What does this fold into?
Amino acid sequence: MTTISGKTAFVTGGASGIGYALAAALIREGAHVVLADVESGALERARTTLAGNGSRVTTAILDVTDRDAFARARDQAIAAHGAVHLLFNNAGVNAAGPVQTLTYRDWDWVMGVNLGGVINGVQTFLPELMRHGAQAHLINTASVGGLVGMKNLAIYNAAKFGVVGLSEALRADLKASGVNVSVLCPGIVTTALTTSERNRPEHLRNSSAPAPVASSTSASAVAPNPVAMSADALAAFTLDAIAANRFWIVSHTEFMPLIEQREASILQAFQGEPDPGRVQAMRALIEPF
Ligand SMILES: NC(=O)c1ccc[n+]([C@@H]2O[C@H](COP(=O)([O-])OP(=O)(O)OC[C@H]3O[C@@H](n4cnc5c(N)ncnc54)[C@H](O)[C@@H]3O)[C@@H](O)[C@H]2O)c1
It folds into this structure.
């Protein structure tokens, strides 16, 4: 069990979409919140809307790829709240398209935010999560795109598979540390992810911007999507999973057959049956979760 009431949560990408909905749900559960986001106008609007519900709400203008800024935001959060107990590495962007049309700028931007931002969050906050001795929880937002590869999502898949792998390793490493770990892998959610380009920094913009391609996991805010979940429903589902200390936070059951198919195809590719002695020796060697 992870208790939420009375704790302080640091939420990256907290000005919009899933991050904002998580912050609102956390406040409803009695947590205090630091909203961290690169978009200053949206951040201020979020703070104004969420403040005044009995919880302390502060903000940090933060680009998660900027390690020095991350350290400053952490120090400001600790100064304002005393401690940080819950870290949501949630900020994310998408540049979808066939891999042959992608540029190094696309790769650097999406990998930098979606994987680099999570790495920076872990490196910056892990000492704090372990410092205060209270129960802590680290939640990384991946995606079903971190569980199955999909057309037009090469960079997004590479980053989100990285987030899932990192989270599994964190869970193994932190087993006895008092820091619980979860990985959030949603399917389609109604948010502003399809307009991620609004946050692409100037130096990573393509000289001729390709027409954005709608992708299977980012078709969200603009067109109503029959299989999209609301960010509020996802946030409620996520907080329940955190309270129950579930590692996998998987919300969209329509992806189950795809995940089953992927796992089955990997298992079918093995030749022969595993030798129990070698399995035991390997498990002892790599200490999986
Ligand atoms: N919407 C979906 O269908 C969906 C599905 C699976 C996973 N996700 C993941 O959920 C997370 C949240 O995305 P969302 O759907 O709410 O989109 P969103 O665009 O509504 O919210 C993303 C937030 O991240 C912020 N952000 C972008 N770049 C940043 C940076 N460099 N530093 C700090 N903040 C930055 C944005 O300003 C925005 O507030 C992302 O990691 C995304 O990959 C979304």
The chain has one domain: 8-256. The domain at 8-256 is CATH 3.40.50.720 (Rossmann fold).
